[in-house]
Amino acid sequence: MDDFILRALMGGIAVALVAGPLGSFVVWRRMAYFGDTLAHSALLGVALGFLLGISLNLTVIALCTALAVLLVLLQRQRRLASDTLLGILAHSTLSLGLVSVAFLEGVRIDLMGYLFGDILAVSQGDLLWIFGGGALALILLMILWRPLLAMTVHEDLARVEGVPVMWVSLGFMLLIALVIAVAMKVVGILLITSLMIIPAATARRLAATPEQMAIYAGVLGSLAVVGGVMGSLTWDTPTGPSIVVAAAALFAVIYLIPGRRFRRAG
Amino acid sequence: MTSVTRSSAHDHTPLVAARGVGLTLGGRQILHGVDLGVERGRIVTLIGPNGAGKTSLVRILLGLLPATEGEVIRTPGLKLGYMPQRVLVDEVLPITVGRFLTLGGRASRAHQREVLREVGVEHLLDQPIQSVSGGEMQRVLLARALMRRPDLLVLDEPAQGVDVAGQGEVFRLIARLRDRYGCGVLMVSHELHLVMEAADSVVCLNQHVCCTGRPEAVSRHPEYLKLFGDPAEARGLAIYTHAHDHHHDLHGCVIENESQEKTP
């Protein structure tokens, strides 16, 4: 197997193993569109990174986190419905990103790579970042797991039981931002949320506990990465979208199997 | 019925107390001048019409909402058990009743089983939480609050979604748990007819405290007859009826000079 394929598979699987568990929370908390909005703003983070001449990963994380906090504050105003707010911010930050990229002089940006991912061009350095960032995200998620789960089920109840709700929410947003920065190279900012949501939704049919769902989502995401990369090499299709198609195919297959709608414990 | 002569009865410091608590949200006054205390081993029931601010007051006492006036005093290190009015867990989250109980803190399976048995729903331990009925869910929520061995139980409409026959059972269960855990209980209820037998003290709230007292002591008081009507009749009707000695305007403020003429 060629080195670049191996790197693509390793990077992709690492991303899927983090995106699955985090995606489970995105699904449970009904934050799919929220995640999508943050991902859309990542391009602005990329432009900012070029402009300031610092690490793109850092500016993407910083910008996504800042936007997440801004969104939460705006949602508290209750003047506009949440989905309207998200719609405004998702598209305006993406467009702002595209416009700022056009202003960058003397920089050649592989726009398609950022939008749809360029997993076959993953370098040793990228791999290091994906592993490091991914491991950090998993550790953070494990620390936040129980309070975050308690909050997801009932926020007031969790608060009375002593969960520092504000800090845990902030930690969760930081996690989403981190995963967006990690996954950007693999599937691109337009498709990142699909790698979080589709495997998690697929895993629901097979899981009887929250932990099972998170782990199955990581495994199913990895299968989608392998299928997508192989399919893309075989049929010469764009790799990022191929991974998402593979994930969607897995979803369809698992939900088409007859039987009880969801698995139950005991 | 309940005479509070427990070992802890000498300690009259309330577990939680509101002192002149007021709440104004967006220029609208929701609560004002509320004094309320819950002592260990006592059941205090909060009643009042819709929009009286019962839930707001409970949220303030729980520390979920800051009061805009007055203060809330809590015993240091107070362990709260809270049962919200409604908890709906989305189908997309696979979680059993037993696991749900551990969300408030780690607990062994034996402990989960024991607490579920105490509230009479042991058979639900391994069931998905989405499959339990409304009445069962109330008991599961009660179990989750008890897992923490609380000093104070705060119950928002504990008999909600329970049929009339089951409601008395729920209130008796709460009284039993109070005896066993020696905790204080504050509950919000609109099941007015059961309030009399379940509570040590009743607080009627309509943006401020309209009237308050121990049901059995107050029932012999002439003021009670004036405020709450004839007790025999009230029991016969099985309704906690009362007339206010004052009236409210549209904003909920007491109309001062009207109170004399309109009092029955």
Helix-strand blueprint:
The complex is a heterodimer of chains A (266) and B (264).
Chain A: H1 3-28, H2 32-40, H3 42-52, H4 56-77, H5 82-103, H6 111-116, H7 124-153, H8 155-160, H9 165-187, H10 192-204, H11 210-235, H12 239-256
Chain B: E1 16-25, E2 28-38, E3 43-47, H1 54-62, E4 69-74, E5 80-83, H2 97-101, H3 109-118, H4 134-147, E6 152-156, H5 164-181, E7 184-188, H6 192-198, E8 201-205, E9 209-213, H7 215-218, H8 222-228, H9 231-237, E10 247-248, E11 254-255, H10 259-262
Helix pairs in contact in B: 3-4
Task: Give a verbal description of the structure.
- The complex is a heterodimer of chains A (about 270) and B (about 260).
- With about 270 residues, chain A is mainly α.
- Helix content of chain A is about 80%, strand content about 0%.
- Chain A is built from 12 helices and no strands.
- In chain A, helix 7 (about 125-155) packs antiparallel against helix 9.
- The model of chain A has no long low-confidence stretch (mean pLDDT about 90).
- Chain B is an alpha/beta fold and about 260 residues long.
- Chain B is built from 10 helices and 11 strands.
- Chain B has helices at about 55-60, 95-100, 110-120, 135-145, 165-180, 190-200, 215-220, 220-230, 230-235, 260, and strands spanning about 15-25, 30-40, 45, 70-75, 80-85, 150-155, 185-190, 200-205, 210-215, 245-250, 255.
- A 6-stranded mixed sheet of chain B has the order 5-6-7-3-8-9, sandwiched between helices. Chain B has a 3-stranded antiparallel sheet with strand order 2-1-4, covered by helices on one side. A two-stranded antiparallel sheet of chain B has the order 10-11.
- In chain B, helix 3 (about 110-120) crosses helix 4.
- Chain B is globular and about 50 Å long.
- The model of chain B is unreliable at about 1-10, about 235-240 and about 260-264 (pLDDT under 50).
- At the A-B interface, helix 7, helix 8 and helix 11 of A face loops of B.
